[in-house]
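[Meeting: bench + compute handoff]

Bench side (C.D.) handed over the final construct sequence. Compute side (W.E.) agreed to return the predicted structure before the next meeting so the bench team could plan truncations. Sequence as handed over:
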Amino acid sequence: MEIGEFDDEQGYIHLSVMNMGVPVIYTTNQDNVMELGYKKYGKKYRSIINLPDFAEIKVSEQLYIKFHGDLNHPNSIVFTEQDYQNRIQDVGNALNIRLRADLIEKNILFIGYGFRDINIRLMFEELNKAFFGSIPKAYLVAYKYSNELQEICDEYNIVLIDPMKEIPDSENFKVAFETFIRKLTEDTRFIKHKNSMDEFFNPTSTETQKVLSKLELEILEKTVCENTFDVALRSFREVFDLTIIPHDYDDRVKDIFIEIAKKVENEKESNTLSYALVHLKLNKHINKMLVYSALMTTGCKRSANSKYGENHFIIIGMNGIKESSYILIAAKAIELVYDWGWKPTAPFVSNIGHWVDRSGDYNSLTEPLKRYISSWIDKLRKDCVTVAEHPIKRQQRLKEGLFSHNMYQFNEAELTIYEQFINCR
């Protein structure tokens, strides 16, 4: 009942079962054949023999549950009639409990199983009675079909599969069984691969994510207030990268980001701050626009790369923020420059022009929005003289030329949000 080395030819069915990639395999065998196959091919698995083994399970491991024990653990073996009676009477046995749970929630596939185990038959009878025959469908691939086996399967509502009927050209039942298992393995692997690819390109479930707590928020507010830009930003990203932000904390998170933006002193810090927006999951659209404005404001801290004061600030996109709204966000950034007591710089003026170029049509905005934008741009150009063309005039000139078909027209819903936005802090 124990071997020293796994033989691929003799262990073909073991390999097939192993390679199906199912999460849990039960066996009533007490030998070491399957374990040697796992080890030979470096596959992750967890042999489950007693209750303590369940505590050691890791997510990536396939479970190999030895339902009737293991030869190296004599106390676990179910072999004699008395052993069977003891197992049946032990309602708290961990392996029995696990099998009951799997029978209730999963489709069970029996392979080459004679169904002579009274313990498992009683479980089926018990569960079918308790759940009025509505437990998930189970299937049994017969090694050799018999009327007796068919009667047992019918009694417990198990679908019996006869390989000789599935593979009618087979020489005998042994060849039919092995051929069917080979086809089953191939089909299973194909379906699992297809499902994995479908899930990758069209996810149906989301990864478990952390939710921001009040304590984390309070600690971060204090950390940002008392520390340098580097410490503040590192702490911010540790807390908020891919973290779900409750709606009630949205405004406070926005304020924390703005406080970090105020600490920016140079181009490098301005660039690193932009990465913090990639995975920041704010809920309110206006708050997203406000943090984007704060990021644009840090363009004031960039150094000129040419005699014309240019230094293009390429901002990484944020979910929910369209380039068409840049004209409003950039105007708010100018307002923040003055609110923060910063002095406008040539690189900032140059970038305002770039952002307006990529925005929606200025003339499709409401009059209050146009006044807001033009007044701040005019003030900026007055306080920081530049030879560059006025951004709004340039946009309209381009609109009349080659880019007319690309100029985005704002809709009514956007205009409503933007009018709220320009009055926010």
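W.E. noted at the follow-up: The mean pLDDT is 89. C.D. will use this when planning the next construct.
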